[in-house]
Amino acid sequence: MTSKRYRNLPEKTRDLDSEVIDKLIHILKQNCTTKFDESLDLNLQINNKQKKSEINIRTVINLPGGSSKKVKVGVVCEENKSQEAKDAGAEIVGGDELIEEIKSGNIRFEKLICTPNMMIKLSKLGKVLGPKGLMPNPKLGSVTNDVKKAITDAKSGQVEIRNDKDGNIGVSIGNKSFSDDKLIMNFNAVIDALEKEKSNNTVKGDLIKQAFMTSTMGVSYKIKLGKSI
Prior knowledge:
Layout: H1 4-7, H2 21-30, E1 39-46, E2 58-62, E3 73-76, H3 82-87, E4 92-94, H4 96-103, E5 111-114, H5 116-122, H6 126-129, H7 147-155, E6 158-162, E7 168-175, H8 180-200, E8 208-215, E9 221-222
Parallel strand pairs: 3-4, 3-5
Antiparallel strand pairs: 1-7, 1-8, 2-6, 8-9
C-alpha cells in the first residue's frame, strides 16, 4: 500500500519527454517531500553488448561538488605507515592482523586501501572481498603507497562507477540540500568520466542508451543528454 505522500507525487513521469539536467534538478527537489535529506540518484543503462566484446566499466571519479556520504575507510599497510593512515582519517588500520580479521569475515569498513607490498598477502582474499566490491585495485587508486591521498579522496567525494551484467550504472550525485550548481557539476563529472571510458573502448554507437534521475523516495525522470556518448 502506497503512502499519501507518494500518491501525491507526479505519475507516469517516465512517459514524459526527456529533459536536460539543469531543469530536472529543480523538479526533483520539489518531489523531495520527506523529512530527511533525500539523495539524488543517477541511473544509466549503457550499450555494453558489443559484437566483438562486452564493455565493462569500472572507474572512480572525484565529485567536484562533494558527496554527502560518509565512508568508513580501512587501510592494510606496513607498521611505518599506520600513523599516516590514522592521521589522514582512516577508521580501521592494520597489517597482518587486519588481514586475518578480513579472512574470518570481520569486515568493518566500506572502502579498503592497501599498500603494494601488503597487496601480495591481501590478494589471496579475493573470494571474501571480491563479491563485496572491496578488493583494492591499482587502477582505482586503492593500491598505493600514498595512503594519505587515497584516504582523502575516498572521504571527500570519490565515487565508483561500475556497470552490472545488464549494463546498469547507479550513482548518487548528492543530496537535496546541495546547491543546483554542485549537483550539475557532479552530474557533468560522471558524464565526462563515461566519455573518457568510451574513448578507451571500442564502442559502436552511443555508450549510454538511457539515463534517468530520481530522488530516494521520489519518482524517476528521463534525462536528455547534451552530448552523444
